[in-house]
Every structure is written in structure tokens, then in C-alpha cells.
Design goal:
The chain is α/β, with parallel strands linked by helices and about 240 residues long. The protein has a single domain (about 1-20, about 55-230), classed as Putative cyclase (Glucose Oxidase, domain 1), CATH 3.50.30.50. The chain has helices at about 40-45, 105, 140-150, 175-185, 230, and strands spanning about 5-10, 10-15, 35-40, 50-55, 60-65, 85-90, 100, 120, 140, 155-160, 185-190, 205-210, 220-225. The strands form three sheets. Strands 5-11-10-8-6-12-13 form a seven-stranded mixed β-barrel. Helix 4 (about 175-185) links the parallel strand 10 and strand 11 (about 185-190). The structure holds zinc ion (ZN). Zinc ion (ZN) binds next to strand 5. Zinc ion (ZN) binds near residues 57, 61, 63, 190 and 218.
Length: about 240
């Protein structure tokens, strides 16, 4: 089981969907660089303690509505139910660099989209994490996003940097999907990884962010998939 990062907790398999956070973490261009330093050591202080300096959108993380909406909910005000739910994983791995993901390929999942479900775009782009190509991910069209929201989905997740096209440095940055989802009171999880390790039906996703106080617009999270159904499934003969 350890080959895919999974472990067993009382019969429930856990798959880690998070990228490591440290100075090497690939961030959105212009975001603060993560800094991790040792503030205390066992030798000098009796315990090891790190000091962290991170942007709120470092690594695998969630966006709260306040990220793009001035009057949007701050992270602390977002119900925890937004960060946990049954995942509907759309396989869009056939999409290439900067290719739009439109409703025609997502409509097959329409019946499973519902309030409380987490809609996951599996682009396969986590494979390019750490390289320049990571910025050239496929992206969700505004029209497709509207259809997903119409089904009541309020949590969107992606194994890439951004569900919108990443067009850093151009005068016209495009944030349609962010505005649509966050404007509807939803949340977005970005930089998921290891989705290919979910080889079971009906995964339960948990992506709980740090409980940052005040005007928090998002926070890193430890995203995991749980095979809850598998714990009660009879073992294979
Ligand atoms: Zn973000």
C-alpha cells in the first residue's frame, strides 16, 4: 500500500493528495516565496521547532471567497462542509497545454454533480509540477464552470496550479472560474497531486485548511482521499 502513498487507518485506506511544502515548493508567479527555518533545536532549546513564512496559497491549498470577492466569506467563515465530500473525479487527462476544458467532456459527470460533492478536474498536470510546463496547464471554461455550479457544486478541485488559464505578466489576466466559484460562495482547491493513486470507487475527499483568523483568503491544506467504502467491502478471496 505504501507504493502509492496510502496507509491504512482502522481499515480505511488513506491516499495523500498533497505536495510537500518547503522552500522548493513551486508557487504562483509573484506569490510570496515560502521560507522554512529552524527556530529552535533539541541541542540548544530542548525541542525542534520550525519558523514558517508562507503565502496563503502555498502548495496544495484552498481559496476562500474573499480571495477574489471583497465581500466574500473569509476563510474562517466558510463552513467545514465545503472542504469534505464525495469526490466526482473527471478524467480530462487528454487535454494538452493551455487547452480549454469544455462542458462537452464534463457532461458525462453531470448526473453525479450535486450539492456537497467535490468536483475534481484530473488533468494529469501534477506530472509537470516543478517544471515550467506546470504553468501551461489546461483550464476550465467559464461556460463549463457555470454548468457545474448550476448542479449545486460548491467545491472545485484541480491537480494543477489554477482552474483558470495562467497568463502571468499579460495585462489581461483571466479569472473567470475564480469569480464564478468564489462569487457563488464556493471554494477552490489547487495543486492537488497523486490523483492516479485513487484506484477505488467513491472516494471521500478531505481538504481542511489551517484555521487562519481574520481576513484570511485561503490556506494550505492536507488533501487526502479516504476509501471509506473499502473498509466495509469484503476482502477479495
Ligand atoms: Zn489559490
Amino acid at each position: 500500500m505504501t507504493d502509492t502513498g496510502g496507509t491504512a487507518v482502522e481499515g480505511v485506506r488513506v491516499v495523500d493528495l498533497s505536495i510537500p511544502v518547503g522552500p522548493e515548493t513551486q508557487i504562483y508567479p509573484g506569490d510570496p516565496l515560502p521560507a522554512v527555518r529552524r527556530a529552535m533545536t533539541i541541542e540548544q532549546d530542548g525541542a525542534n521547532v520550525l519558523a514558517l513564512e508562507l503565502g496563503s496559497h502555498t502548495g496544495t491549498h484552498v481559496d476562500a471567497p474573499f480571495h477574489f470577492e471583497t465581500d466574500g466569506e473569509r476563510l474562517e467563515d466558510v463552513g467545514l462542509d465545503r472542504f469534505v465530500g464525495r469526490a466526482v473525479i473527471a478524467d480530462v487527462t487528454g487535454h494538452g497545454d493551455r487547452e480549454p476544458i469544455d462542458w462537452d467532456v464534463l457532461s458525462a459527470y453531470e448526473d453525479r454533480m450535486a450539492p456537497g460533492t467535490i468536483f475534481v478536474l484530473r488533468t494529469g498536470w501534477s506530472e509537470f509540477y516543478g517544471t515550467e510546463r506546470y504553468f501551461d496547464h489546461p483550464f476550465l471554461t467559464a461556460a463549463a464552470c457555470e454548468r457545474i455550479l448550476e448542479r449545486g457544486v460548491r467545491t472545485l478541485a484541480i491537480d494543477a496550479l489554477n482552474p483558470d488559464e495562467t497568463v502571468v505578466g499579460e495585462t489581461e489576466e483571466r479569472w473567470d472560474v475564480h469569480h464564478l466559484v468564489l462569487g457563488a460562495g464556493g471554494v477552490i482547491a489547487e495543486n492537488l497531486t497523486n490523483l492516479s493513486a485513487i484506484d477505488f470507487e467513491d472516494p471521500l475527499l478531505c481538504m481542511f485548511p489551517l484555521r487562519l483568523a481574520g481576513d484570511a483568503d485561503g490556506a494550505p491544506c492536507r488533501a487526502i482521499a479516504l476509501d471509506v467504502a473499502g473498509a466495509t467491502r469484503p476482502a477479495a478471496p
